[in-house]
Write a structure and sequence with these properties.
The chain has 279 residues and is α/β, with parallel strands linked by helices. It has two domains: 8-213, Vaccinia Virus protein VP39 (Rossmann fold, 3-Layer(aba) Sandwich), CATH 3.40.50; 219-277, rRNA adenine dimethylase, C-terminal domain (Helicase, Ruva Protein, domain 3, Orthogonal Bundle). The protein contains eleven helices and eleven strands. The chain has helices spanning 30-37, 59-63, 76-85, 112-115, 131-140, 154-161, 171-179, 219-231, 237-240, 248-251, 265-277, and strands at 8-11, 17-19, 26-27, 47-51, 68-73, 99-103, 121-125, 147-153, 180-188, 193-194, 201-208. The strands form three sheets. Strands 6-5-4-7-8-11-9 form a seven-stranded mixed β-sheet, with helices on both faces. Strands 1-2 form a two-stranded antiparallel ribbon.
């Protein structure tokens, strides 16, 4: 069987080509890279994980904060470039004490292997095709990740930051905002990328809530309730949570006459707490 050929886009001046199957769009605008790097506070941790650094346009501005950066990159061309040709400034090569590249898939990587139980922030120009999965994995490591900043497809960034009552409010909004304050920072046009995507992008910042570990319900149960609710988002909770076999006195409440997009994050947390207590 012939080996499958993946489409490559125009080569960058660094000899690294963006690959369609990896969802790559290399950031080329330095001012945008600086703005993304500036969104983190760099307080309360001394290490940053960058996902999909590509040619290091964002990486160098994070390194200039004097913080250790671990870059996870799946593209072997980018890995070779970053390991052997990545300058910080004045032709100095970045030291292994402040920068390392790991050739791996972020979604498959056990982050404990890199950080043990130490805190770290996440930053990146995230591949659009796995961006929501990146957020869900971040939530699994919420005890170690006080900050998360980066670029998404605009609609995904807006969905993460959406408030209840919005048509874009959904599973991603509720689960993220239960543990993090979500702020949509700014919009970026296609022209700052090589190759340019067909959509606009949005940069957001997630800052972990001070009481994130004091939620009255478990993450697993909250995820179950929220997913069930939004799987049938046009229906009321009374219908969408029918499979949970809840008591009639609970199902008769006014809350159960609402559709999931009308229910606040705190109301979802409170409801899940009650359901979890039922055993």
């Amino acid at each position: 069987m012939a080996k499958k050929q993946f489409k490559k886009y125009t080569s960058t001046d660094k000899g690294v080509t963006a690959k369609k199957h990896l969802g790559q769009h290399f950031l080329k605008d330095e001012s945008v890279a600086i703005d993304i790097a500036e969104c983190l506070s760099y307080e309360g941790y001394n290490q940053v994980l960058e996902i999909g650094p590509g040619t290091g346009v964002l990486t160098k501005h994070v390194l200039r904060k004097g913080i250790k950066v671990t870059a996870l990159e799946l593209d072997s061309e980018s890995v070779v470039y970053l390991k052997h040709s990545f300058p910080l400034e004045h032709n100095k090569i970045v030291s292994p004490e402040s920068f390392q590249v790991v050739e791996t898939d972020f979604l498959q990587k056990d982050l404990k292997e890199i950080y043990d139980d130490r805190p770290f922030a996440i930053i990146g120009n995230f591949p659009y095709n796995i961006s929501t999965q990146i957020v869900f994995k971040t939530l699994e490591y919420r005890d170690q990740i006080p900050e998360f900043g980066g670029m998404f497809q605009k609609e995904v960034a807006q969905r993460i930051c959406a408030d209840h009552g919005s048509k874009t409010y959904g599973i991603l909004s509720v689960l993220t905002q239960a543990y993090y304050n979500a702020d949509y920072l700014f919009t970026v046009g296609p022209e700052v990328f090589d190759p340019p995507p067909r959509v606009h992008s949005g940069v957001l910042l997630l800052t972990r809530k001070s009481d994130y570990d004091q939620l009255s319900c478990s993450f697993e149960k909250l995820r179950q309730v929220v997913k069930l609710a939004f799987q049938q988002r046009r229906k009321t909770l009374r219908n969408s949570l029918k499979s949970m076999d809840l008591p009639d006195e609970m199902r008769d409440r006014e809350l159960f006459s609402l559709r999931p997009e009308q229910i606040s994050v705190q109301d979802f947390v409170d409801l899940t707490t009650e359901i979890e207590a039922l055993g």
